[in-house]
């Protein structure tokens, strides 16, 4: 169960018998899995739950699920558990044989050094984790602020490494667009899949921060923004997922026909 607000039709997991609001029931609906960094394994792992979950019935269109997620490779007595809570919405009735459900909110309590998956670029790992935490807590604008900070930081770091000036003769910062264009021309950091929209990414990130988008829009676009920012960090060649992110953001006016090399990916 990753952070996914899309509709999913699932097998009934509460049965057909009526339930009173506020009552809970043990259910078996498969294991919950989420990715974290395990400090004991010193690696990213998919933490999983036990088979039996606790489901609290709010009404026929809203339930919550509580569980513990554990590192699959650590011994049972290792302090590598995550308390997780999921708020699940239902389009029809959760008591049906095949309800259509979607994730409304996910909250987790990370302790003992457990954190969100660490990226290959360690200097940005903390910022990415803060962005993910804000997103998990439904703070869309806050999450996007961290993504924009990463984009700015990697651009300025690359400019410095390439000997490109980021200030003018009056020691004032050169407009970011100019710096990005100079950097990308000398040392491409924008993946080819959305190179024509390199500044558009920064502009849209800034719009969220300046209040031109509401929180719901920021939350909806966060995952696509994150993939593109991470694509800048790694400038990877597998392009499927990056192209999908560009499409979801509505930047493909020509249905991505002009994009060379196919879609992009960030893993």
How are the elements arranged and paired?
Elements: E1 8-9, E2 24-28, E3 33-38, E4 43-48, E5 52-59, E6 62-70, E7 81-90, E8 100-109, H1 125-136, H2 140-161, H3 176-186, H4 198-209, H5 215-234, H6 240-248
Helix pairs in contact: 1-2, 2-3, 2-4, 2-5, 5-6
Spatially, the strands of the biggest sheet line up as: 1-8-7-6-5-2
Low-pLDDT stretches:
236-243, 253-267
Q: What are the secondary-structure elements, in order, as H or E?
A: EEEEEEEEHHHHHH
- How can the largest sheet be summarized? 6 strands, antiparallel
State the helical fraction: 25-40%
Task: Average the pLDDT over all residues and give the rounded result.
Answer: 78
Number of helices: 6
Oligomer: single chain
Strand content: 15-25%
Q: What is the SS-derived class?
A: alpha+beta
Radius of gyration: 21 Å
Shape: elongated
Query: Roughly how many Å apart are the termini?
Result: 17 Å
Instruction: Tell me how many strands there are.
Output: 8
Protein name: DUF4145 domain-containing protein
Write up what this structure looks like.
The protein is an alpha+beta fold. The chain is about 30% helix and about 20% strand. The protein has a 6-stranded antiparallel sheet with strand order 1-8-7-6-5-2, with no helix packed on it. Strands 3-4 form a two-stranded antiparallel ribbon. Helix 1 (about 125-135) packs antiparallel against helix 2 (about 140-160), helix 2 packs across helix 3 and helix 2 runs parallel beside helix 5 (about 215-235). The model is unreliable at about 235-245 and about 255-265 (pLDDT under 50).
